[in-house]
Amino acid sequence: MRQIYIAKYGGPKVLEIRSSADPKPGPGEVLIDVKASGINFADILARKGVYPDAPKAPCVVGYEVAGDIEAVGNGVDKKLIGTPALAITRFGGYSDKVVIGKDQFFPKPSEISYEQAASIPVAYLTAYQLVV
């Protein structure tokens, strides 16, 4: 799979595409085949090296994704495979595939695109909280 790494801190040119092995879901986890990743202010601050919660570079950030559930680990209903989903990832969302806990995803509403769904967990909810 491909991942977008923050190779070192700085502007957008520090981002690198790297290949790595596909992750496998463990017990209580799901694997999402990512169709869209959200980009939010925390990601930008992490790229600049000023977001205190982010992993140290080189790293893969990305807090929100949307895609289809491709596989599930033990203890997760196999009927979920194929379900369009949106998810909060904490980190690692700039990837073709992500593994998350089964409680970190929500079914994607059919009336919105993957791109729209990928903006909901962090970018949309942050804006909503600020306004409301």
Structure description:
By secondary structure, this protein is of the alpha+beta class. It is 19% helix and 31% strand. The chain contains three helices and seven strands. The protein has helices spanning 41-48, 114-118, 120-131, and strands spanning 2-6, 15-19, 29-37, 64-72, 84-88, 97-101, 105-107. The strands form two sheets. The protein has a five-stranded antiparallel β-sheet. A two-stranded antiparallel ribbon has the order 1-2. It is globular. The model has no long low-confidence stretch (mean pLDDT 95).
Gap from first CA to last CA: 39 Å
- Overall geometry comes to globular
Strand order of the largest sheet: 6-3-4-5-7
Largest sheet: 5 strands, antiparallel
Assembly state (oligomeric): single chain
Keywords:
single chain, 132 residues, alpha+beta, five-stranded antiparallel beta sheet, 19% helix, 31% strand
